[in-house]
Amino acid sequence: MPRQRSSATTAECALEKGLRRRWRLGERAIEGGIFLASLLAIVVLLGIVALLLRQGLPIFSYTPPWAFLFGTRWYPVSEPPTFGIAPFFVATLWVTAVATAVAVPVGVACAAYLSEVARPAIRETAKPIIELLAGFPSVVMGFIGLLLLSPLIQSMFNLNTGLCGLAAGIMLSLMSLPIIVTVSEDAMRAIPDDFRQAAYALGATKWEVVRHVSIPAALSGISAAMMLGIGRAIGETMTVLMIAGGALAMPVSPTAPMMPMTAAIASGIGNAVRGGLQYQALFAIGLLLFLMTLAVNLVADAVLERQKRKFQR
Amino acid sequence: MTAASTVSRDRMPEHSTTKIRTEGVSLYYGAFQALRNITLDIPERAITAIIGPSGCGKSTFLRIFNRMNDLIPGARVEGTIQLEGIDIYDRCIDVVELRKRVGMVFQKPNPFPMSVFENVAFGPRRHGGNNRGELADIVEKSLRQAALWDEVKDKLDKSAFDLSGGQQQRLCIARVLAVEPQVILMDEPCSALDPVATLKIEDLMRQLSNSYTIVIVTHNMQQAARASDISAFLLMEPDRAGVLVECGPTSQLFTSPKDKRTEDYITGRFG
Q1: Can you tell me the distance from the alpha carbon of A195 to that of A193, in angstroms, rounded to the nearest whole number?
Q2: Cβ under 8 Å to A: B residues 156-215
């Protein structure tokens, strides 16, 4: 830090030798600009939260929070209307659980293959293709689920309809796969080669190196990848709207038709009277979704932080 | 080169037998030849130092003995390398078993991101030992052998990264000892350490050489002179391939080198 005071003689000398402090306007402008940009992100986030709270909270004066959360009856246009979102909540849990159960093992295995086994040529080809999967519009994924997956599931499990949580979960797993693969692969590639070399030199086989060195060392990155994937699955709307089945009943198994929270909002908002009870209830579902993804993110952060502290270089 | 190897065989300490024998070893990375026609005997239960200027292929040569070069795409070895008379590059050799017998310590201390205990237990666990009591015994024994037990016995569950650089390197040595190898390869094990830690490692090497065959790569002349029984001097030829210039008992190589190039190098005229 420069001293606050400066003597007149120093200033004179500095001027003479070209050492005098300059007022760099460009620097200041850029500093200010990027500060404003980051401020904007925070303002927008706070604005969204405020909006959700303002539109969603009033429903709780009609339906108490516990009845809202644990109620199993969603009859927004009956007289009197009831707003129980438990079936939607459980549907979201089912669909996310299926998506995670499929995407995490496959994603981590794929990342391990790309980072530890595949020749560079294969990796350079495969990675962009996997990333392309992330760019597929979710409505297209919905179509594929509708056309290919749900008939398969219907005949496999002998169901009345193949449109169910399982079908939606599997399609979601495909959509969260790219992010899990990409982030895990980056994490595994970032771990120093020293570790692998040391393990090989101790007589570890390739599988042992992957299983006991690469994956554990990259675990923080892999769990972050998992959380991002889960976040994607929780928030995805179009695919689940198309193939989860849309049933309002409490889904007792993943093969039941169901209506995840996102789908409930999307299908309900068109009919809801602005500012009405149903409208408020849908916003409250949105608020709950936000809290769920927030929780996932906080857990991811905590995991990352703990890992970092535990074995810091 | 043939002359040099004859010298090495004649002047080896009388008590020792040859542990590793290399004959006419060349190594290529793709089209580039990194080592040319190296013939060298490494005696059992002694410290053999491989010295030479940077880039002459010392580390590459060392990595031949546990086939770590297999991990580099495009690396190819010619000639024969025998461990106790068995050609380790034969098709029927299991690399995993070979590396259990020929352990390696790296230039930069590279403990795993695990606890001190798990670092040492890594090898034994991989090779089938999962009995907690037996593992604890192996870990303690290995850490004692590596002269580290007293310093870490209270922090076995702490991260290996909490140790100092010198302790980490001794941990890496303990990790190798836990696999009960016959040969320990050390690739400039002290280059990342301060002088005190360096001396500790050298003392440790001296003790270990009673029961293990040690091959150390070093660019530190004093270290080779202090710590080794046999020295081999490698040099880069104009096409950048490494060749063995001279090999013999360390005392002789450092006091009356046969080759002019060795003399120039150890007296600091180049390199």
Answers
A1: 5
A2: 159-161, 172, 175-176, 179
Q: Do B176 and A212 touch (CB under 8 A)?
A: no
For residue B98, give the nearest of B68, B135, B129 by alpha carbon: B68
Cα four-point dihedral sign A165, A167, A170, A174: negative
**Is there a contact between A201 and B122 if contact means CB atoms under 8 Å apart?**
no
pLDDT at B10: 41
**Nearest residue on chain A to B159, judged by CA atoms?**
A311
Q: What are phi and psi of B258, to 5 degrees?
A: -80, -35
> Which residues from chain B sit within 8 angstroms of residue A311, using beta carbons?
113-114, 159-161
* Secondary structure element (H or E) that encloses residue B43, with its range: strand B32-43
- What tokens were used for B36? 């040319």
Between A194, A200, A202, which is nearest B175 by CB? A202
Superfamily of the domain at A75-310: MetI-like (1.10.3720.10)
Please work out, in degrees rounded to the nearest 5, the angle formed at the alpha carbon of residue A111 by the alpha carbons of A106 and A116: 130
**Integer Cα distance of B170 and B110 in angstroms:** 11
Return d(Cα A43, Cα A27) in angstroms, integer.
24
Cβ–Cβ contact B108 with A under 8 A: yes
Burial class (CB in 10 A: 0-12, 13-18, 19+), A306: exposed
Contact A145, A172 (CB under 8 A): no
The CA angle B82-B83-B88, to the nearest 5 degrees, is 60
The pLDDT of residue B8 is 42
Nearest chain B residue (CA) to A215: B113
Please give the Cα distance from A95 to A246 (Å, whole number). 12
Q: Which of A229, A308, A241 is nearest to A268 (CA)?
A: A241
Instruction: Select, from the ranges B4-8, B52-56, B99-103, the one with the highest average predicted confidence (pLDDT).
Output: B99-103
What phi, psi does A71 have (nearest 5°)? -65, 140
Distance from CA of B96 to the nearest CA of A (A): 4
Segment B122-128 mean pLDDT: 89
Chain segment B204-252, per-residue pLDDT in tens: 999 999 999 999 999 888 889 988 999 999 998 888 889 999 999 999 9
* pLDDT lower than 70: segments of chain A: 1-6, 307-313
Contact B108 A312 (CB under 8 A): no
Chain A closest-CA separation from residue B122 CA (Å): 8
- What's the whole-number mean pLDDT along residues B44-52? 93
Which pLDDT score, from 0 to 100, does residue A3 have? Answer: 63
**Nearest chain A alpha carbon to B178:** A202
pLDDT at residue number B15: 55
Q: Which of B63, B115, B122 is the best mutation test for A, with the most CBs of A within 10 A?
A: B122
Where in chain A are the domains? 75-310
Query: What is the rounded CA–CA span in Å between residue A4 and residue B106?
Result: 51
Mode of pairing for the β-strands spanning B75-83 and B86-87: antiparallel
Residue B210 burial by CB count (10 A; 0-12/13-18/19+): exposed, middle or buried?
A: exposed
Domains defined for chain B, CATH in brackets: 2-111+183-266 (3.40.50.300)
